[in-house]
Amino acid sequence: MIVDSFLFYLHFLWGFEKKKKFKIGICQLKVTTEKNVNILNARNLIQVAAEQGASLILLPEMWNCPYSTDMFGKFAEDFNDLDSASSFLMLSEVASALGVTIIGGSIPEKDAGQMYNTCTVFGPNGELKAKHRKIYLFDIGKPLPGEVQFKESDSISAGDKPTVVDTDFGCIGIGICHDIRFPELAMACSARGAHLICYPGAFNMSTGAALWELEQRSRQDDSASAVDNQLYVASCSPSRDSASSYIIWGHSTVVGPMGEIIATTGHEEDVIIADIDYAAIQRARESLPLKSQRRDDIYQFVDLLG
Predict the structure, then answer these.
(1) Following CA atoms 162, 165, 170, 173 in sequence, which dihedral angle do they give, to the nearest 10 degrees?
(2) Given 30, 134, 189, 236, which residue is catalytic?
C-alpha cells in the first residue's frame, strides 16, 4: 500500500513537470530530387520554427525524397548504419542543438531487407525516443476521376503497431498519412493517453481537397480525428510541386479538441506556429463527456497490443 501511494505521488509530480502550454511548429517543406538539398532545407526551417518559439516541431511525410515508389529505395536510410543515415543524423543533431523535440515527418527506412515509411521522434537531447512505421499503406484500387494511380505496397512494407511516445509535452500519438483514414488507430492512441496526434502526410489533389481537413477535424473524439477523440491533431504536408507526377495538396493544419482550425497554411512552402493548451482538452471533455456516455454494454473497443 505504501509503495502504491509512493508511485502515485511520483506520477502526480511527473504530471506537473509536463508542459501543458507550448508552441508547435509545422514545417511545410519543398521537396526536391536532391537529398542533400532537402536535408539542408529541413534544417533551416526547423531553425526558423524554433526561432519563432516552437519547442515541438513537426515535419512532412517523405520530406527527404520525392513521393514516388521508384524513388523510395534510392533515398532510404538504415538507422543502424549512422554513417549513411544523413537525414536521421540531421534530425538528432538539430534537436540537440536547439533543445527542441522533433516529430521527424517520415523518410524511407530500410531494415532487414524490408523498406518502411517511418517517422522518427527525437527529444531535446538528440536521442531517438520512438519511431512509427506507417501501418496503412496507400494503395489505390480503382482510381476516382482525376485520381492518380498509386500503390505504396509495391515498395513499402507495413508497420504493425500503434505508436504513442512520452515526451516533455505529454503523450503524443503518431500516424502517417493514410493512417488517418482509420479511426481505430486514433482511438488506440487516445486510449493510451495521447493529448495530441501528429500526422505527417502527403495527400494528393483529389483526396486532399475532399478529405484532408475533414479527417483531421473528425479525429478529435474517438474516431480518427480531433473532435471525435477530443484532443489536438497536427498535420504536416510537403508543399505542392505542380510539375510532379504526384501533386500534393499541402495545407498543413493544427486542429483543436472541439474540431476548430487553430492554424493552417496554403500549398506553398511555409512554417506555421500554433499555441497548444491542454486545458482546452479538459474543457471539451467536461462540456461533452463522450467517454462516459459510451455504451460498453453494446460495443467495446479492444486494443490488442495495449
Answers:
(1) -30
(2) 134
Q: pTM of the predicted model, to two decimals?
A: 0.86
Which residue has better confidence, 73 or 230?
73
pLDDT at position 249 over 80: no
Give the CA diameter of the chain: 65
Please write the tens of the pLDDT for every residue from 57-92: 999 999 999 988 899 999 999 999 999 899 999 999
Residue of higher predicted confidence among 37 and 68: 37
Specify the 3-state DSSP secondary structure of 169: coil
Residue range 175-225, pLDDT digits in tens:
998 898 888 898 899 989 999 999 998 876 556 455 555 565 554 444 445
Residue among 61, 77, 152, 213 flagged as catalytic: 61
Tell me how crowded residue 97 is: count the other CB atoms within 10 A of its CB.
14
Closest CA to 184 of 225, 214, 155, 150: 225
Cβ–Cβ < 8 Å for 236, 26: yes
Q: Which of 119, 171, 177, 189 is catalytic?
A: 177
Is 184 annotated as catalytic?
A: no
Q: Report residue 81 CA to chain centroid gap.
A: 24
Instruction: Outline where DSSP puts E strands in the chain.
Output: 21-28, 56-58, 101-103, 107-111, 114-122, 128-133, 163-167, 170-174, 196-200, 232-236, 253-255, 261-264, 270-277
Classify strands 107-111 and 128-133 as parallel, antiparallel or unpaired: unpaired
Percent of the chain, pLDDT > 70? 81
Interacting residues of 119 by C-beta distance below 8 A, sequence separation 6+: 103, 104, 105, 106, 131, 132, 134, 163, 174, 176, 200
Could you confirm whether 134 is annotated as catalytic?
yes
